[in-house]
């Protein structure tokens, strides 16, 4: 799906961004100690060499302040402060997540209640790690058509309850965290705006990454728990190859669709799955690796939260400057993938 080429009366821009993480940081060595209790073995040098991850944050089970919607609340408040809007200004809350507080109601509704955003239409969006860019695309279209003026978009996950501590390939690469953005209406010729987006899905590749039980397909029984079927499963090597190719293809298609080149891009903000994937993509595209934003080393893969949290950090520390061109670039379970070009 790509942005309509005919002229719309409005455009949208990212008016504010924010992020929040749980308190507890878990180093690779601490994780290795934890999974040893489940009969699995790993170590810090292996994780650093194969993934670039050094630590991640995990929400404390049962801590109300570290639920997905609670982290989302903290991230949303920061994004709204930057945008200069209050809860009653929000027309929609789009909550991109694959680790909702509860299956029903949606995490968007939990957040709506916490914020007191009474006017907002609130719903969840599950495109796994691609969720933030999928949400950005949907928000931009709602704003272009005049349906909304301010949309609060979350990319937010508490993945730790879905990790299989016996599976050393999977449990080492994920973490918990939350990113939020306020997407606001602006004139269609505004210099700072979302220039375009392309999102795609291919459901035939569902088995690269999935959770067999816990949905309506399969109830969580003692036997399911014993076999860890209610936990995430992935084909790591296949995803690695898919991700490298897809992120590179996404980037080229996105800039070309806007009549630009990769040289015009100031920062690439890719989904943070593995540092080696990001380095391979930069090499494949001959794109300077110093212009690729990275936070996977400190927070691991936080799925839908990786792009907004990496972006928030770089906005707040001054690396991203007004007028710069940002290429958001994602892939995820489904499979889903896509990119967006944003003039900050
Ligand atoms: N600690 C120590 N050894 C480990 C290990 C761990 N945590 N995980 C796997 N190994 C071992 C394997 O058993 C294997 O041993 P063997 O050679 O004796 O069989 C060896 O390390 C290499 O395993 P392999 O699976 O080839 O490693 P890899 O280099 O592909 O790295 C991933 C594994 C998961 C880090 C990597 O494939 C990856 O990041 N894939 C992408 C995953 C992803 O992005 N998922 C999110 C989707 S949004």
Largest sheet: 5 strands, mixed
Q: Tell me the Rg in angstroms.
A: 19 Å
Count every beta strand, where a strand is a DSSP E run of 2 or more residues: 13
Distance between the amino and carboxyl termini: 22 Å
**Poorly predicted ranges:** none
Q: In percent, how much strand structure appears in the residues?
A: 15-25%
> For this structure, what is the CATH homologous superfamily of the largest domain?
Thiolase/Chalcone synthase
Order of helices and strands: EEHHEHEHEHEHEEEHEHEHHHEE
- The main sheet orders its strands as 1-7-6-4-5
Count of helical stretches: 11
Helical amount:
25-40%
- What is the CATH topology classification name of the largest domain? Peroxisomal Thiolase, Chain A, domain 1
Describe this protein's structure.
This protein is α/β, with parallel strands linked by helices. It has 11 helices and 13 strands. A 5-stranded mixed sheet has the order 1-7-6-4-5, with helices on both faces. α4 links the parallel β4 and β5. α3 crosses α4 and α8 crosses α9. The two termini are 22 Å apart. The model has no long low-confidence stretch (mean pLDDT 96). The structure holds coenzyme A. The site of coenzyme A (COA) has 20 residues, from α2, α6 and α8.
Task: Describe this protein with a few key phrases.
globular, alpha/beta, Peroxisomal Thiolase, Chain A, domain 1, binds coenzyme A, 2 domains
List the helices and strands and how they pair.
Layout: E1 10-20, E2 25-27, H1 28-36, H2 44-51, E3 55-57, H3 68-83, E4 92-96, H4 107-115, E5 121-125, H5 131-144, E6 150-157, H6 168-171, E7 177-187, E8 193-201, E9 209-210, H7 222-226, E10 233-234, H8 236-257, E11 267-270, H9 275-285, H10 296-299, H11 306-316, E12 325-332, E13 336-343
Parallel strand pairs: 4-5, 4-6, 11-12
Antiparallel strand pairs: 1-7, 2-3, 6-7, 8-13, 9-10, 12-13
Helix pairs in contact: 3-4, 8-9
The structure holds coenzyme A.
Residues 42, 46, 50-51, 129, 168-169, 172-173, 209, 234, 236-237, 239-240, 243, 273-274, 301, 332 line the site of coenzyme A (COA).
